[in-house]
Automatic annotation (TrEMBL):
The lineage of its organism: Bacteria, Bacillati, Actinomycetota, Actinomycetes, Actinomycetales. NCBIfam families: narJ. Keywords: Nitrate assimilation. It comes from Actinomyces viscosus C505. It comes from the Bacteria. This is Nitrate reductase molybdenum cofactor assembly chaperone. GO terms for molecular function: metallochaperone activity; unfolded protein binding. Residues 232-253 are annotated as: Disordered.
Length: 253
């Protein structure tokens, strides 16, 4: 007997919200912190750091972060860690690695990852942790730290994947859906051509012409953190959330 997995429904376009560069940086750093794996002893510190900045954000965005904080505290760190693995490790459409939505686990993956690495270098940053450069929290941290248009281009050019992730998380009734929706609100509005590509990707899922057959996602979802780095370098003209945990993403080259 063949089993079928229902594709998630396509969500409405995210609400249009006016954000200052400082507010956008705050949202991106908050999402970067909270979309990262909640390693033991880290979750409450991250929640407190984000909660302290909620008053600086528009209500439409702040409420999404506030709801995540409330759910995370209600579930507790261990349950959130288990949910993280269940959602991001075991669902093809819930991958936090952006190139997975464009090339999947195909022969093009290496070139796609190299393009991300080169984009970080073009912005004057290099990876400061043992993590892939297309990891969404990495790109969001780069955006918050630098305010560079390179980070915005990386996010916008992978908008279809972000929207598929948002739809799949909402379909799974995951508290992480609100975080991705908050990120979507910071990006340019979706045009009809992009919306059509999102619908197609939601229906079909990421590319499956694989190099090797596997039952798991082609990318790890629990990052290795670099304990020698901490904090956030302030972005001129902005005040992103102070990172209470070791930096996962990028440092000045």
């Amino acid at each position: 007997m063949v089993s079928f997995v229902r594709a998630p429904r396509v969500l409405e376009k995210p609400a249009e919200v006016q954000l200052t560069p400082s507010q956008r940086a705050t949202v991106h750093m908050a999402a970067s912190l909270l979309l990262d794996y909640p390693a033991e002893g880290t979750l409450e510190t991250r929640l407190n750091a984000v909660e302290a900045e909620l008053a600086t954000l528009p209500a439409e965005v702040a409420v999404l972060l506030e709801e995540f904080i409330a759910q995370a505290r209600r579930r507790g760190e261990r349950a959130m860690a288990e949910h993280y693995v269940e959602v991001f490790d075991r669902r093809r459409r819930c991958c936090l690695y952006l190139t997975y939505y464009t090339v999947g686990d195909t022969r093009h993956r290496g070139a796609a990852l190299l393009a991300f690495k080169q984009a970080l270098a073009a912005a004057g940053y290099e990876m400061a942790a043992d993590e892939l450069p297309d990891y969404l929290p990495v790109v969001l941290e780069l955006s918050a730290r630098s305010g560079d248009e390179v980070a915005g281009t990386l996010l916008s050019s992978h908008r279809e994947g972000i929207e598929v992730l948002r739809s799949a998380l909402a379909d799974a009734a995951s508290p992480y859906a609100g975080l991705v929706e908050a990120v979507s609100m910071t990006l340019p509005q979706i045009d009809e051509a992009t919306a059509e590509r999102v619908r197609a990707l939601v229906a079909a899922g990421p590319p499956t012409e694989t190099v090797g057959v596997t039952n798991t996602l082609p990318f790890p979802t629990i990052p290795v953190r670099n304990p020698s780095l901490s904090g956030v370098t302030a972005v001129p003209g902005s005040a992103p959330v102070a990172d209470p945990s070791p930096s996962q993403a990028a440092r000045r080259a």
